[in-house]
Structures
1.
Amino acid sequence: MLKRVLVTGKNGQLGLSIAKIAQDYPQYDMTFVGRDQLDLSQSQTIIEYFQSKTFNVIINCAAHTAVDKAESDPEIAIQVNYLAVKQMAKIAKDQNAILIHISTDYVFNGKNHKPYVETDPVDPINLYGQTKLKGEQSIYIIQPKGMVIRTSWLYSEFGDNFVKTMLRLGKERENLDVIYDQVGSPTFAGDLAKAIFDMLSRHFQFGKESLQTFHFSNEGICSWYDFAKTIFELSNIHCRVNPIETKDYPTPAKRPHYSVLNKLKIRQGYMLEISYWKDSLATCLNELEKI
Ligand SMILES: NC(=O)c1ccc[n+]([C@@H]2O[C@H](COP(=O)([O-])OP(=O)(O)OC[C@H]3O[C@@H](n4cnc5c(N)ncnc54)[C@H](OP(=O)(O)O)[C@@H]3O)[C@@H](O)[C@H]2O)c1
């Protein structure tokens, strides 16, 4: 029997990346929804949507991801990243569905000097991170089957992201200032989408159903400065990149200085091979050329 899979956030980077490869997994009957069909800021809409529909898997890619805006307008971030997640966790439990929820490196404060493991203490330093953490915690209170996957520095050929911004600015300007004292690991959304399908298949094969948290990003570590330099090198763009400090680029929301995620658990638990960030960046740039 085909497993019925719901993906929220169908117009977001990850939602579109999942849709792009979904035909490679014909064992799943995929339903993709955007805010027009399932508005996560309206709890009544969520109730009504699931009243008539049941799923074997719910993949929650939707989130209020406007990190800076969330500082001055927290209500919507609380509703989408926390309360709606809590509601979906209850629905997943009632429907006996597997919930795959995407979370963030921003649950950590960035003071570590070695990659964060799943059990490291959480301590978000901005409102977005706080709401994402509350979302995670609500899932653990309700205990549906499934997993929380924390990722970082997501980019893709879709939507707005650092890679696309750099490509645009790099062509317009001769010089760019980019922060070098925030360090992390970029994640190509296409790689995360594939990892989600691979993990799901193993879930159904081996019955790995207890709720767990995993970290996923591409391999390797860089600063935003290194990331920008590499984007330009691989794209043959001649724009000078000046390394600057976070204090010279003030934003409403604070960002962690160090947010590298340790991926040992997901690599070993699911036998995943994770690509090096520069290789995945080259893949994404290649995809962008086709558009
Ligand atoms: N981007 C990153 O660097 C990053 C880093 C770490 C973790 N994450 C997490 O990874 C996941 C995927 O991120 P992403 O980059 O793919 O995000 P994204 O491109 O910003 O997409 C988020 C999606 O959520 C939808 N959404 C927002 N509010 C909604 C609402 N009220 N009702 C229904 N849908 C709503 C948006 O719909 P519209 O298209 O209609 O606006 C959008 O399609 C999220 O959980 C995010 O927190 C992202």
2.
Amino acid sequence: MKFQHVYIGNITLGEGQPVVVQSMTNTDTANVEATVAQCKRMIAAGAEMVRITVPSMKEVESLRQIKEQLRAEGINTPLIADVHFNPKVAEAAAGIVEKVRVNPGNYVDKRNFKTLDLSEEEYQSSLDAMEAKAKPLFETCKAHGTALRIGINHGSLADRIVSRYGNTPHAMAMSAIEWLDICEKNDFRNMVFSMKASNVNTMMAATLDLYQMMQERSTLYPIHLGVTEAGNGTEGRVKSAAGIGALLMMGIGNTIRVSLTEKPENETPFAHTLIKVIKDLKDTDYHITGQTLIYQKSEPDFDRWIAGAAAMSGYLNYQQKIKDIRIENPHFSQAENDNLAATILQACRLKMSKTEFISCPSCGRTQYDIESVLAQVKERFAHYPGLKLAVMGCIVNGPGEMADADYGIVGATNGLAAVYKGKERVSEIIPVQQALEQLQKLIEG
Ligand code: SF4
């Protein structure tokens, strides 16, 4: 087996290297001062790489200034440009920062949620078009030593892929493999792959499928792990720990991001805790009775407690060894232990006892107060077991990426929002309070 190492500024990812923690800014990238200040807070909180959204050419110049200001202060943390569907922006950013994230689902193809009946020739010509668009990016990356993340999102798979493989974890893995083929054909190997979904089981299945296909091809590229749109608070942390933690327990994952709908500085401490907790887990921490996991651990630290219990549960659930969870930690009341068990069961989709909230971490595209909207949505709609509600930061990517949510509120410009039923917008662009009222009417019929 060949282990491909990937070089991102002063960081090396891959076999024998430590797992690297990263996070993403949510300031407006064009606001250079605010973004530099946020980068510094994130780095102080443990971010070892910082990702910044670059939606258009306008922000490319801002990216250059952000990097210059950080380097002038002696801060050499690698920067990553997050580019979704603009090859020209990706090429320009690749000449500036150490890594660029692209999304094969929308780099060339589009997701219109239509079934395409493509012949073999048509399918191949779509791949050829993708390669033609990607070639200049590979050349820029090679010239500057820039790495790429091929970042697959379950919510933004191309119609071409979904029509051929279904809306499945395998479709996600195949989307990555198509890019892997194109990269290798163009002699480009400085790349990392990620398979993100808001559903922990989907994210794990896609990552394991990709990992197995890479093993069969005899070259393992580094993998970035993350559960996207995980939400906030204990729920967001538990979902991340169940997915990321379980895969780390299997020895898979080279860099991680815990996505939270909170300020970015909150993400990295939990990510570092998760990595440490996985190393400290012992066989004596748990046993299985029937199909119930009994997680017994005397752990006074809240984050360590939830990270360990969720990672162990995600790991055993994936192996179909458990159907229920009981948690016993004397440092917390039985009600708190039971509530954590219910939150983990929900994250693993073993038992849906409350509303499932899906919310993105927000980024430079967000123009409304997503944290406050999420808090209001959670307060109003907490008690609808089985209902999936999304709160997303932007109308550009939010609707596509809100996964299998039944309804959602999506941020628009100037603090306004829109209401969605599935992927369909069912309101005008309206103030948030009106959107909440409309959502309530829709849910209550
Ligand atoms: S959905 Fe959220 S994280 Fe994704 S691009 Fe929009 S604001 Fe950013």
